[in-house]
């Protein structure tokens, strides 16, 4: 059953092209999970997340600084290599400077009919953020309507919210199964599911996910392994999680934007639909770039560690991702206070699996030292 | 009870044989291309020295970067766990161990019983590793042993930015062209390597006493740079520092 998700993951572009052909709808690539997908989906658009491919590349050098993060470079590389040639539009809901560079470079070098920069507020902890974003969403909605030449009706938005919330509920249900001492799915399998929810039509994803969850009853893949959490800014590296889980470790939960941060909270339906959507994005578990002055991530991570009975943490640092790096010492300290050892690892476009394996092995041995004495 | 520890490193393979936790034999071989064959050879040589047959060995634990190639091992452990275990056996006062192998530098903080408290490993670059030392000695056209001693005779301090082995080598070439004394260049290089290693030590937290293992521990120039950099007077070095990992492996419960 997981093969369906794996297939979507591996053939994401084929899926989008096929979807476009089938529905005659437009596909819009978005750069960051602050994108208000509900509005696009209501307009009949398939929003797909622009992610990298984890292959070495040499095409972004003229467009992005070498000290910008590997993720933003890998994303742009996909555009420059023509892999997203089916996109009718691109959009960025402002998150960080590095990803904005990918977006603006894309605008210049890979022109598409529709491109939209949404000034998602940084100060999400300000009370004024709700109204500000609500108004920006209204402008965005009008821009989409103008592009497609059709009105986005209230009932379309309601339907989109319903489908998106359903997906969030199902992903929550899937994650909750991993709290058990008998974990029914690996971290890698969970990663295939969460990432594909960012590429596949949600209605279709919901249908598959519901079926998939039903297949997990009585399944147990724990196999006496160390329960880990992955904490990071962004992580969609299948090779890395596969390697980690080939060792006596199982990833039971994550705190990053390709995982739990993407789906954690729902839109609370309200007559002011745009305000309801705005509130969802303002109140979601924050990206490190927006998580100030208060570090709200910390409590969230603490709760995940407790709820999922985590024994160790791998802190994944996308090279040059300053906002996340800034949070790391505090997270590390907090985990230490809780008696949870953590290990920092730095990601690039490709990761040296052999070297990383040696380190993760050493980390796991530290957690299970009794077995060596 | 006879146990064997095999440390299959990037450059050399080390074997330690223990009888009731006492060292009875050890052997070092160049690793070469065929890792499995080297492991076999090193083990049989070590057994021969101790006058033991292969059947007498109760269990074998492998460590080192090529440990997967030791197909006959009963267990594999990481270098980090092996180093900590080995150093506490040899030098029980050590709390931080610096291991410099051919391609990896490591700083490990350990508990008094040989368990690992924390560790750091150099990332994607040889600047804090043994290969770096050899490359630099070659650039100066001196053998590795002389290269280390030379450093102690230097009277000048030159700053060198050794982030990358290749760039550092070209920096050395520039110094040679500028007619800088070899002794001073040697010291600059050792200071640069030590500084890379010290960064790792500081990441896990400096806790005395500090021990150095691996082949580079025999280099007096490096040890001197390390002492100055860490501002400490004492650094512990086991008699045969390159065998510490293999010893730790042999001590591990299989």
UniProtKB/TrEMBL annotation, chain A:
Signal peptide: none
Classification via InterPro entries: Benzoyl-CoA_Rdtase_bzd_nsu (IPR017603), FldB/FldC_alpha/beta (IPR010327)
GO MF terms held by the record: iron-sulfur cluster binding; metal ion binding
Keywords recorded for this protein, A-Z: Iron, Iron-sulfur, Metal-binding
Protein family (similarity comment): Belongs to the FldB/FldC dehydratase alpha/beta subunit family.
Protein name per its UniProtKB record: Benzoyl-CoA reductase, bzd-type, subunit N
Species, as recorded: Candidatus Fischerbacteria bacterium RBG_13_37_8
Automatic annotation (TrEMBL), chain B:
UniProt xrefs under CDD domains: ASKHA_NBD_benz_CoA_BzdP
SUPFAM superfamilies: Actin-like ATPase domain
Alphabetically ordered keywords of this record: Iron, Iron-sulfur, Metal-binding
Organism: Candidatus Fischerbacteria bacterium RBG_13_37_8
GO molecular function: iron-sulfur cluster binding; metal ion binding
4Fe-4S listed as a keyword: no
Protein name: CoA activase
InterPro entries in the cross-refs: ATPase_BadF (IPR002731), ATPase_NBD (IPR043129), CoA_E_activase_dom (IPR008275), Dehydratase_Activator_Redct (IPR051805)
Cofactor(s) required for function per UniProt: [4Fe-4S] cluster
Domain ATPase BadF/BadG/BcrA/BcrD type: 5-251
Keyword Iron assigned: yes
């Amino acid at each position: 059953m997981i093969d369906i998700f794996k297939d979507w993951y591996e053939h994401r572009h084929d899926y989008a092209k096929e979807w476009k052909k089938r529905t005659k709808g437009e596909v819009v690539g978005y750069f960051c999970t602050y994108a208000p997908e509900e509005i696009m989906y209501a307009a009949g658009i398939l929003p797909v997340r622009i992610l990298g491919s984890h292959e070495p590349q040499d095409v972004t050098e003229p467009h992005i600084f070498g000290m910008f993060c590997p993720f933003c470079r890998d994303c742009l590389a996909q555009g420059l290599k023509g892999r997203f040639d089916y996109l009718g539009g691109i959009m960025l809901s402002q998150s960080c400077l590095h990803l904005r560079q990918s977006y603006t470079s894309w605008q210049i070098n890979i022109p598409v009919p529709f491109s939209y920069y949404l000034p998602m507020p940084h100060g999400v902890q300000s009370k004024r953020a709700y109204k500000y974003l609500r108004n920006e969403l209204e402008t965005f909605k009008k821009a989409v309507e103008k592009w497609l030449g059709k009105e986005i009706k209230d009932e379309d938005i309601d339907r989109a919210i319903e489908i998106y919330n359903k997906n969030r509920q199902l992903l929550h249900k899937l994650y909750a199964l991993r709290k058990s001492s008998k974990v029914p799915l690996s971290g890698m399998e969970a990663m295939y599911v969460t990432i594909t929810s960012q590429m596949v039509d949600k209605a279709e994803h919901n249908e598959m996910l519901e079926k998939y969850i039903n297949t997990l009853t009585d399944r147990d893949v724990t196999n006496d392994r160390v329960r880990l959490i992955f904490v990071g800014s962004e992580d969609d590296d299948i090779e890395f999680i596969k390697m980690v889980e080939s060792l006596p470790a199982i990833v039971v939960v994550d705190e990053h934007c390709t995982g739990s941060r993407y789906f954690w909270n729902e839109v609370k339906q309200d007559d002011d639909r745009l305000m309801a959507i705005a509130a969802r994005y303002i109140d979601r578990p924050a990206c490190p770039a927006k998580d100030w002055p208060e570090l709200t991530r910390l409590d969230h991570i603490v709760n995940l560690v407790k709820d999922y009975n985590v024994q160790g943490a791998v802190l994944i640092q996308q090279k040059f991702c300053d906002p996340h790096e800034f949070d790391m010492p505090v997270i590390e300290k907090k985990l230490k206070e809780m008696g949870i050892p953590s290990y920092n690892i730095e990601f690039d476009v490709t990761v040296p699996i052999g070297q990383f394996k040696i380190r993760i092995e050493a980390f796991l041995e530290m957690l299970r030292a009794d077995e060596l004495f | 009870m006879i146990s064997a520890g095999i440390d299959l490193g990037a450059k050399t393979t080390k074997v330690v044989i223990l009888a009731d936790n006492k060292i009875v034999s050890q052997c070092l071989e160049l690793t070469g291309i065929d890792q499995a064959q080297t492991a076999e050879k090193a083990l049989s040589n070590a057994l021969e020295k101790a006058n033991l047959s292969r059947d007498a060995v109760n269990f074998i634990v492998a460590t080192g970067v090529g440990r997967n190639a030791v197909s006959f091992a009963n267990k594999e452990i990481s270098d980090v766990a092996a180093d900590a275990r080995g150093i506490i056996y040899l030098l029980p006062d050590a709390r931080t161990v610096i291991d410099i192998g051919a391609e990896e530098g490591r700083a490990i903080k350990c508990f008094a019983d040989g368990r690992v408290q924390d560790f750091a490993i150099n990332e994607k670059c040889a600047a804090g590793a043994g290969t770096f030392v050899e490359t630099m000695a070659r650039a100066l056209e001196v053998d590795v042993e002389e290269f280390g001693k030379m450093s102690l005779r230097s009277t000048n301090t030159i700053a060198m930015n050794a982030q990358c082995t290749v760039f550092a080598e070209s920096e050395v070439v520039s110094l040679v062209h500028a007619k800088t004394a070899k002794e001073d260049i040697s010291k600059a290089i050792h200071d640069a390597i030590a500084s890379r290693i010290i960064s790792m030590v500081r990441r896990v937290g400096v806790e005395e006493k500090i021990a150095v293992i691996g082949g580079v521990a025999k280099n007096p120039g490096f040890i001197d740079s390390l002492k100055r950099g860490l501002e400490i007077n004492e650094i512990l070095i086991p008699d045969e520092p390159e065998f510490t990992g293999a010893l730790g492996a042999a001590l591990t419960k299989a």
